[in-house]
Amino acid sequence: MRRKSMLAALASTALVATSALAEDVTLTVESWRNDDLTLWQEKIIPAFEAAHPGIKVKFTPSAPTEYNAVLNSKLDAGSAGDLITCRPFDASLALFDAGHLADLDDMEAMGNFSDVAKSAWQTDDGSASFCVPMASVIHGFIYNKDAFEELGLEVPTTEDEFFAALETIKEDGTYIPMAMGTNDQWEAATMGYNNIGPNYWKGEEGRKALIAGEQKLTDEQWVAPFETLAKWADYLGDGFEAQTYPDSQNIFTLGRAAIYPAGSWEISGFNAQADFEMGAFKPPVKAAGDTCYISDHTDIGIGMNASTEHPEAAKAFLSWVASPEFASIFGNALPGFFPLSNAPVEMSDPLAKEFVSWRGECESTIRSTYQILSRGTPNLENETWGASAAAIKGTDTPEALAEKLQSGLANWYAPQQ
Amino acid sequence: MQLPRLRWHIAVFLAPAVLIYSTVMIFPLFNTLRLALYAEVDQGRVFVGFENFRTLFFDPIWSEQFWNALGNNFWFFLIHMLVQNPIGIALAALLSHPRLRFAALYRSAIFIPTVLSFVIVGFAWKLILSPIWGIAPSLLDAVGLKSLFAPWLGKEEYALTTLAMISVWQFVGIPMMLIYAALLSIPEDILEAGEIDGVTGLAAFWKIKLPLILPSIGIISILTFVGNFNAFDLIYAAQGALAGPDFSTDILGTFMYRTFFGFQLQLGDPHMGSAIAGAMFAIILVGVCLYLFGIQTRMRRYQL
Which sequence spans correspond to the domains of chain B? Predict the structure, then answer.
């Protein structure tokens, strides 16, 4: 008897609770960014909920390495959250193709983004967009301002100035000219080839032509970056062949190197580690006055679960993510991850500000290998890692490396055959 | 005529082992081999027979990687056979010397790296050999041999040999212990009999002890073979899944891992991965059979 009344009491409270919640819609966000949990809980969600009474948001991240698998099984079981953080390119495209992500083209807020920003979450023909771009990382070079001052160096803008600066630093001998190793291989491709490359292949123009099969990796503009990389070897310090990514980071933040080929994601880490002033310069152009191109690589987006029960509320959230308000919260809380919307964002971090200012001066593009071209075997992205490292080490000529990449791509990619 | 009694207790006693072994060993093994006969086409699994193996051995893109990995694997094995096992035997012979002092200390010191995790060994050696923070360059500098230092792990020509030597350093304790045990089991009176006949010192080792420990050396060789062809951890811990520089340290294990689970933008292909795992299994099986039927059965055994 006693137990029964207890149950009745429980049931009635549960009923009361649900009826009270009926007006409130709760949206759940799936994400791999568990590093950002406090940012979401303390800044993003309160700001959104204040502006949208009646919608509650829950951020439920999982570990980055498990995210894809966890998300897939949740989607298949129908238990995934209403909003889904999107990995760039093929991983999200597969979700869209399987009908898990909703088409967002009818959303007005999508007009706030450039075509480059949207390219990571579109079908190959660009006819449907399925995620709102959230953040990108920009490539360039971070330098030690104290070292530059000490040696009386100006920030280089052309390639000749760049190598002249490296030569000066080398002759002086106090600093290692540039901190990068080839042991982990990816830096050579990501911070080397795809950092300086867009200036040669003219950003989107070359990247799209490569996808369309109108240019080949053996063309002058795709081989030249390897030739430039080959010249880096003299300035990378002793034993760079066995230098790892953390080694390079430490060498630079300890003040032992003058220049660090970087991605903007390094900013918060470097701010915490380095006790000297840092500046950044964009990849040097061939001749003064040339149009500059930067790699403004799309990294995080957010989309809507196609089978969500609250499509209206979810769209309201996505529109808000596309707004300048979100961009300013996100961009300042995570310096180095830049919001992608066209609205200008005021950054407080000087280094981040420097990086993002290039968007106004240069043409943006994304890494050449990421869209479509790394779907087959051999994998172009992985091959480019090896080729870039080999170019720097001088184990093969730029032409031979480009030849190998091209024949690998032509092996499976029809437009290049 | 009486029917033989049903000896059900045999089945009962065997059942736990058979069940567990089947579920965790036999079934996964055969399922992997089965997986190698399929391919994924348009989000569905299709039976393709030996197509994956044909791709692996005859498509230049795959076969080049496969033969490279296999060649590296043989080199890795060769270094172990030429360096690890002779040193192990020599150490065991020294340790079993009756007048050696602190034998127990040496034995433990040499054996301890064996119980360390690959990750620790890989990381520690990477630091030791690092051209930037490592002690190897300064140690060589101290004896005036700085010119001999090279960033070994980053050079195509040295990386694999360096890793093989690190592995030798870690595992030299295993052959040492096995041979040590075999040497201890040689009865004193045989050696004494030899001494009376004038066979002492080194001659006693070559003429009496070595023939008696040959079966143990055979077992060690086969353990080394199986261990090396299944190796993966050290390379992965030290050089990552791409087994750099330029695949010069790629062995079958890392090749299989990369293919099966994917890497960076490369999506995993469980079917090709299983085909590589199948090839590894076949290679090890053939190697072990060659040894068992070709060498083991012909080895002379002595009644001690």
Answer: 51-298
